[in-house]
Structures are given as C-alpha cells and as structure tokens.
Amino acid sequence: MQKYKRIIKEYCKSSYKGLFRNPEGLLKYPFIVPGDCYGIELWDWDSWLTNVALRQIAPDNEELYSYEKGSILNFLINTDETGKMPIMIRPEGFNLNYKTDGETNMHKPCIAQHIAFVLQNTDKDNSWIAENFETLENFLLRYKKKNKHRCGLYFWTDDFMIGVDNDPATYYRPNNSSGAVYLNCLMYKELLAMAYICEKLSDYDKKAYYEKEAEELKSAIRENCWDERMGFYFSVDLNLLPIDKSNWLHSGAPRHWDCLIQRIELWSGFMALWAGIATKEQAERMVKEHFYNEKTFSSPCGIRSLSKTEKMYTVKKSGNPSCWLGPIWGIVNYMVFSGLLKYGYEKEAKEIAEKTVQLFGKDIEACGKMHEYYNPETGEPVNNMGFQSWNLLVCNMIAYLDGEKRIKEF
C-alpha cells in the first residue's frame, strides 16, 4: 500500500501542470483540462472536481488560483442572457450541438459549488463573484423554469452529455422524463452552495431563499427517490400521461402519483450519502444492504457503476458515450468514499480508499499513467490512457488514510 501511495503522489506531483491551459479564443481566462491527453477543452464537472484534487496536490502553487478562477469565469462569460451555460467550451465554439435550435442539456449544477470551493480555500479578492452573480442566478433560474417537475424534482432535457453518459435511467429515454437522482443530488448541493455564496456577499435574504429551495428539494428527493422496499435511492420516470378528467376510462381512479421509481441499481444512488440527503436510518440500510453486496455493487476494485445483476451490465470499451454500465470510475469510488465519511462509516471509507489506491497505483506502475475506467474484477484498464481529471482525487483519499488534512469538495 505504501508503495502505491508513493507512486501515485510522485506521478501527480510531476504531471499536474499538464492540466493547465492558457487563454485562447472563447476561453479568455486560464483554465483546467481533464488530462494531459486532452487538447484545449474546458469541461464542467471535470474542472470543478479536478480543482478539488489540485488543491490537495499543490496547495502552495500560487498560479493555481488563476486557473481555478479562470475555469469558472470562462463558463460565466459564455453564458447567454437566458442563463444557458455550455457544458464544454473550445476556443472556436461550444460543445457539439449546443448552438442548435432544439433544446438540450446545459452545464451541470456544479458551478456554484466550484465558486464556493474557491471561496473556502483562498483568501484572494473575490469581487469577481459579485460582478457575475446575476449570471449565476440566471443559470439556476433557467434550471428552475425549464427543468423542474411539479413533484419538486429536476430532470434532464435529454440524454446529451449528462456526465454519466449512458446511465440507463436517462440514456435513450424520452426528453424531459428522467428525474435522475444524480442530477438532483448535484442540484441540492448547488443550492446550498448558492446560500453560502450569498452569505459571503452579505445578502441574507437570498441566502434564506436558497436554503429554503434546498430544503424543499431534499424533501422531494426523499419522498420520490427513496425506495423502502430496496433500501436505496433511485432515479424516477416522469414520463406519465397528463391527468384528463374528461377521460371516462380513468375518471373513477385518476393517478395520485407524479413519478415512478426506476429500480435500476446505479452507483448514483450512493450520491444521497455524498449530498447529505439520506437519513441516518437510510444510510445504514444503504451500507449494509448495498455497499458490501458482491452480487451488485461491491467489487475487488471498488464500486461498480452499475449493479452486476442488471441486464445492461457490461464493461466493454466505448467512447461518446463512455461506458458507465459497470466499469470502475475514479469519481464513483471517490463520491461513495466521501459520502461514507459524512455518515461516520470510516471502516468502509478506508476500504474503498485502499482499493482505489491499489487500482491507480498498479496502473501508473504498469503504464506510467492512469486510465478513465477499469474492469471491476481485475483492475485492468479499459479506456483512455492519460485521463487524470477526478482520478486525481485519490490524493485526497491518501491524505485521509495518512491522517492528514483532506481537502473536501464544498
């Protein structure tokens, strides 16, 4: 274990500057890319989570601030007046079909969390946040206007670039139908981050507003996504026909539910721990019934991105979309690790941290670099050598294992 910790730390220390890019085209500020194998592309949740890792790896690097701040500003200045923020930006334009006439997904709700993280970890002048606060609010207001269901949950517009690319609860599903637990957990933390930012800006009325919005969303997630039968959090299907009181066939007993649980065992159910949404009792069931279940999530290398019992399960190599149908992803292991610690499950958190250290340490030892995702049984890399991004959060896990200060995402 000590050998792999050393290998990982040496690799990260020697390579992290390869993630820095200088301004070009639409990207007016310095920014962070997902890996040295990438060109000049700024991605939404990659830049945020990579930033969390970089603060652990290089806390004394003075130039880091310009890259983390620049990553945020590049998104804010490229947000239109309606609040539509791109998922990815290249110097010459936005991601793929972002500028088409049809509606599609936008930046995941993590930009306020990125800002809050920077606020927590620097003592720099933060006037730039106040200057761009209206844009930030427009971004969240757009989500509320266009992507919030009457049951209180948020939904994806389509299955375009959701991050967990081929999540079966969203992938190939009808537009506006996926009340993904992953999206809603992100949004809950985003609203809390907005409240924190408002406090820093001394706007206590708006702070109270965002805290209320967060609390209402937490209630909606608990009400609609928790499944008492399975003891787990699931995404929900919102694709229900409207209630038509004139329809004689349904008039005697119209539906009294606004969504249906999709009992597809996805890793993202564990995000209810990461976000702090699960109750203490729910967390206990999730750990006892799912974390250790080798037939579903538990593997020698960490948490499978999809339960092994699901018919969609596969670990084959794919890109566009990347395969989240079973392989081990570094971010999955990290989010589960972080959630376990939040609820006091230190033994389990230590176990998954050690599995991750071994997985990445062996890969760096054999290949000189990390990959994007891995075979759950063997640890063999599946795709994309040179990917760093959130994999670098293994350094935050090592800090925990060594009893050092762990830099936490907001």
Q: What does this protein structure show overall?
A:
The structure is a single chain. The chain is mainly alpha-helical. Helix content is 43%, strand content 8%. The chain is built from 14 helices and 15 strands. The chain has helices spanning 2-15, 44-57, 64-77, 111-121, 127-131, 133-146, 181-200, 204-225, 248-251, 271-274, 280-291, 330-342, 346-367, 394-401; strands at 20-21, 31-32, 42-43, 88-90, 93-94, 178-179, 226-227, 232-233, 236-237, 260-261, 298-299, 302-303, 328-329, 373-374, 381-383. The strands form 6 sheets. The chain has a 3-stranded antiparallel beta sheet with strand order 3-4-5. A 3-stranded antiparallel beta sheet has the order 6-9-10. Strands 13-14-15 form a 3-stranded antiparallel beta sheet. α2 (44-57) packs parallel to α14 and α7 runs antiparallel to α8. The protein is globular. The model has no long low-confidence stretch (mean pLDDT 95).
